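INTERNAL AUDIT FORM
Audit reference: QA-55
Scope: verify that the stored structure record matches its stored sequence.
Auditor: D.O.
Record contents follow.
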Amino acid sequence: MKGLVSVVLLSIVVLLFLILFFSPYPELKAYRSRSYGLVINDRNGVTLRVVPADDGVKREWASLGDIPAGALRVFIRAEDRRFYFHPGVDPIAVAGSALRNLRAGRIVSGGSTITMQLARLIRPRGPGLGGKAAEAWDALRLEARLSKKAILELWLNGIPFGSNIEGLPAMARNRFGQPVTQLDDTRAALLAAVPRRPGLYDPALNPEAAVRAALFLSRRLKLGLDQAVLEAVAREASPDADEYRSPFSAPHFTERLASDLRSGGNSTIHSVRSTLDLDLQSYAEELLQNELAMLTKNRVSNGAILAIDNETGAVRVYVGSRSWFDEGSSGKIDGVRVLNQPGSCLKPFLYAMALDTGFSPAEILPDIPQVFGGSEAYIPSNFNRRFNGPVRLRVALASSLNIPAVYILERLGVRSFEEFLVSLGFDSVAAAMGSHGTGLALGNAEVSLEELVRGFAVFPRRGIPVELQFIEDNHGNSNTTQVMSPYAAWVISDILSDRGSRFVAFGPAPVLSTSFPSMFKTGTANQFQHIWALGASARFTVGVWMGNFSGETVVGRTGSSIPARIAAELLAALEQSSIAAYTTGGGSGESVGGPILAEAGEIEICALAGMAATPYCTGTLREWIRIKETAGNSRRTQKPCSWHQAGELVYPPEYQAWLTERFRAGNTGQRGTAGYIRLPAPGSVFYIDPYLPEDAQALRVETVGFSLNGVVYVDDTLQGSLNTAGVFALTLQRGQHRLVVEDESGGSAAVDFEVR
């Protein structure tokens, strides 16, 4: 008989368990999948920001192992000392609660266990015995489905503390400015009483009452807490205390990271260690604030900074604007991703492409007045309005000369350069493919700071692109695709770190002088509304943009030396922050691009003509030329200088006007030979500027090879004579025109052009 009873009882228990385990409980699934805040830490574990849950509640998740044992003990003993020994409902607690309620003649105790409290959070029940019974049933179901650890974990992360705060982790941070991992017994006792009466016992709202409740709890649980210590800790939770406020650092970075994680379906990620370095971030923000403070009168209101680790693409600094809270200058806009014209910052990519299509760093480029374009004439000029004549490619890039850049682009093709930029990661160029023209060489495309920094890092990475990384443990840069040759990347790095070559345009440029190998490129958009600087060492790349999100032009000329100063100082701080930079070559290499490449050979060239030096050359220097492999043998190819001849210097004919107008030594040997019109180009279309008097606007006619008595006709009407440089200033008149130049020796040339 006893055996039968035992079987029946066991069957009842099993049946009850199965009912508890398998009965529908959709509320539990919904509760376990609810949103929690995202804690974003910097690479050193310092909290940058806690992004609230999707419903706006301050709610963080912490695993049970992250909560100190002392804090666990306080909360368990305060709410349910027999938690580990009952099945969800504590009969002893229920009986004791009923007795106390009878004695008081009213409800003074509910006898709820931790499991019952969690059941109430999952599915709130009505008051009275019916609600209590339903709550108890749900508690039993929880115990059948979950372990004690899981129940305790869910409860601690969901306790309502009032003030839109749920869970012990969020309460610890919002009241004491520290993660729950650092919660001690004193602070735990102050918080343990809050859920019972949040409006009364919250130490931030009523510190005196909170201390009294904590002392009562301490005596009841025999914690031995000191009143003076409790009072001091309660003062830390004051709403006016900076220590308790939730951190809000690097808002543009954290906003982007949180958005990326949530849009990627990573709702189970509650805490991440990002790549950002808060110390460097704060330093960069200070640099930007200081510079902008001095530019108020110039109407420069904003800026952005991005710095990455070249090896991994890890973002170390991400400053999106002057201030997130500056509504007047649209501070919430992310300047790292806004599209603006970059000025000369695209030139390094153009010259890298040129090196990979047959140009050499010693190539001579004409920095003289020229007309480019097809249906519409494009006449670029250098920022200092000067022409330097023949310049080596190295000098043209280092000094950021405009005309040589457009000259190269016209030969490489705008479409080819667009495609090259797209291969470097310029998605903005891909979106506007075919709309740029030869002005692309000077930055008429709209690109982002992020694209520029990512692209500039290709040079110290020897031609391999990098993807930005925002989470420290991600290692997603296994890309080995070469978008440019190692030689081109190495030479561009060498040119942009060559202080001597940039002297033509920038002089000594002390702002760009660093104690470690570094390369820089600056840029200024039209009207100076956007000023840029890019800088890189072997280990890091930095980009800086300054201007206005509204696109307003600045007052006066601010110059790109301002963002360049920020880039150089931040690059130095990055180098100093990384010991590895000095032990792995990052701070002591021969160049930013690393050791000299086997395919780069150094030869002596003529400083003027860029060709291999001969005994007639009056100045020589060394240059890195690509070594060509032929039948297994390496050879350095460079034609000997043909400009310096015995007793004279002979330039190519296109430099005739440049030589003569400035009374320079040398000649072209072309006077009296078959003449031709160098400017304007056949079929050019010119536009009269409506903001200037028409009689003050002229077209430069430049010829080569005509005698000193050459004359100019337009539409069969004599206009005048060429000057000694073969140049004539032609007054502009709207319409189709035919230009003819003749000289007394019978030489003649003609071109058609249009003025609109």
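Auditor finding: record pair retrieved intact. The chain has a mean pLDDT of 86.
Action required: none
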